[in-house]
Amino acid sequence: MNSLQKPDLPSPAPRVSDPEVLAGEIIETLTYRIGKDAKVAKPHDWLTATILVVRDRIIDRWMQSTRKAYETNAKRVYYLSLEFLIGRLMRDAVSNLGMMDDVRAALGSLGVNLDVIAELEPDAALGNGGLGRLAACFMESMASVDIPAYGYGIRYMHGLFRQQMSDGWQVELPETWLAHGNPWEFERRESSYEIGFGGSVETVGSYDEPPRYVWKPAERVIAMAYDTPVVGWRAQRVNTLRLWTAQPIDPILLDAFNAGDHIGALRESNKAEALARVLYPADATPAGQELRLRQEYFFSSASLQDILRRHLQQYPDFKSLPDKVSIQLNDTHPAVSVAELMRLLMDVHHLDFVEAWDITWRTFSYTNHTLLPEALESWPVPLFERLLPRHMQIVYAINAHILVDARKGKAMTDNEIRSISLIDENGERRVRMGNLAFIGSHSVNGVSALHTDLMKETVFADLHKLYPARINNKTNGITPRRWLMQCNPGLTALIREAIGDAFLDDAEQLKALDAMAEDSAFQQKFAAIKRKNKEALAQLVGNRMGVRLDPSAMFDIQIKRIHEYKRQLLNIIEAVALYDQIRSHPELDWTPRVKLFAGKAAPSYHNAKLIIKLANDVARVINNDPAVRGLLKVVFIPNYNVSLAEVMVPAADLSEQISTAGMEASGTGNMKFALNGALTIGTLDGANVEMRDWVGEDNIVIFGLTADEVARKRAEGHDPRPIIEASRELSQALAAIASGVFSPDDRNRFTSLVDGLYSHDWFMVAADFDSYTKAQREVDCLWANPAGWNAKTIRNTARMGWFSSDRTIRQYAKEIWRAG
């Protein structure tokens, strides 16, 4: 009998949340589970004790949620993602449990400040940027809208690097978020699975039976699970984030150790631990590429083995798998899961190819996050075949199955066949993971309306012709619990005072705030909260960097991964041009402005790291020039993460969403800023298009080429030189950067960046510069009218409710997963 079916086992009494009871439990936990006398306990001791007491309340609801899913035979959703940028968890969990006042009071009675100890919680270093934060928002929303779900990923020891600055250059250091343990997680040693690499494939069976294939890996590791509960709003459901860590089969080769080979004796242990050590190892080398593929297969295989085990505990076979299980692939990182599920169904559970394939493509769905060809992963065939020989056979078998049908049934041309093939034959033969994810899924979704349309026209045009009903749109969203209630409690309280509490459960009820946009008294309260948030950010910048900021200036913020298509370079060049104008025309009434940047560059991305250096060099010159009179400052804040975003987002006056049109899939930072009352300056790219439709053209500042115009310029052979020479401000700014004005120690430091704009300007920085500067001066004019500015920013907050991840998840559940 399954343990969930035992009715006579006693259950512990549910914990209560009375402050006096909480205070007693915190002291007891501090004493008996941490081993500290309250009189000598340090802030980190109080933090851990508080987390453990809160966690006990979560466990009650977690177990109820698990039992409910089992007893109702509910369809489960499994979200596979290489990243989960969850940030700090305590405030989120306490708020979603409805215990914030009680916990604050309990700690206060013990002489402990909740806000102080909450700041000590480390950010979980499990993600890079928007994709990982979206996965975290989705996990919270799945629990909030009562979808039984598991998230699956890797428990990175260091995750993405910690960013420091050395003379303005990015330096990557290990992120040690697990150095003192993680009180939120539970080790699940019973959920361990063997993962293989390399080796050979053998055929077994007699001559009169269909052949069966047995993969005999040369290397094996153990994947072991760690579970973290994910609490939904009002704790309606608690779901599970299951992260895998790697362990060797033999932790130490004792014979080698005793023979004196102490390093060699730990070889297997080190190879296993490397799988879960660092997020996105640099893949500029063959060794880096191999480790990346190993990571992707490692977590995909462990997750699928776990999913199939759970299914067989409840159902007799896999015929019902697509009806009871939905597996969402978050980008191409887990795309190898398509081949792995086929292997498990055929080689381990002995289904034939046709039945296994029918189950596989009906079970998977795939979210595409990029139109950049380099981001649609592909692997050299020799590497893939050496590391995963059985999967290479399966990829070829799937390819044959699809291409034969396409050639005969769909009458596709040779070029179209080459385009849809799982094997790229152009140059070095490579396995196309985007095509594998597309073909192996019944649903393929984009993450904004524009992005979805472009998918059909560009990267997946021929696959769309083959499967015309497969591509659909699910515009991204953000959780309002984290990105309004948690990060901006002052604004949340003001909204509750103005329109009541309905928006807490349904973000679209924020629309009632629209009626307050022109109310001068409400505007003053709204502006006062923004000012307080700006003061908090100014204090953070002062403490960390020694730079003094004036909170009365416009805070103009661009925070996101550093990439040329996101065009931090355009923003920096405009700062240089503005710097020249302020010095040249001191008689004009310039808007005081602080340009703030934050974000990390991939360690091997030279130009992105050079852009960070340029931002810091420009900041050093501008911030120390008395001729500017404090009217312009530039700040690059190191080590961008969720906790830093939670301070920067509520403090923004202007949100920079200036990517090259047609290149940003959606964006979610744009939604966070607007929800918190910032005005957006942006291109018609990603979800900016839909944001304009929702907030209104008068409440957003749009500039630049459209996606169609960008594509047309590239096709016609864009020549940026005449554009640069015709723009006095642009040409002068580029001349200053190229000549070493901002890099006197190395006058040629930024020559390559400037030469790139003159020679090809692929990301349309020069092409959009004049339009961008004109839009920025329009922003200055808007800022000069405080009442008008406040009305626009209030309307942004009021009209952003549709961009809740709850809405997005409900669409996934209804239209893709058929769950809930």
From TrEMBL:
Pfam family, one: Phosphorylase
Presence of keyword Calcium: no
List of residues that carry N6-(pyridoxal phosphate)lysine: K672
Major enzyme class: transferase
Recorded coiled-coil stretches: none
GO function terms (MF aspect): glycogen phosphorylase activity; pyridoxal phosphate binding
Alphabetical list of InterPro entries matching this protein: Glycg_phsphrylas, Glyco_trans_35, Pyridoxal_P_attach_site
Places the protein is found: Cytoplasm
Keyword vocabulary terms for this entry: Allosteric enzyme, Carbohydrate metabolism, Cytoplasm, Glycosyltransferase, Pyridoxal phosphate, Transferase
Its biological purpose: Allosteric enzyme that catalyzes the rate-limiting step in glycogen catabolism, the phosphorolytic cleavage of glycogen to produce glucose-1-phosphate, and plays a central role in maintaining cellular and organismal glucose homeostasis.
Name of protein: Alpha-1,4 glucan phosphorylase
Organism ancestry: Bacteria, Pseudomonadati, Pseudomonadota, Alphaproteobacteria, Hyphomicrobiales
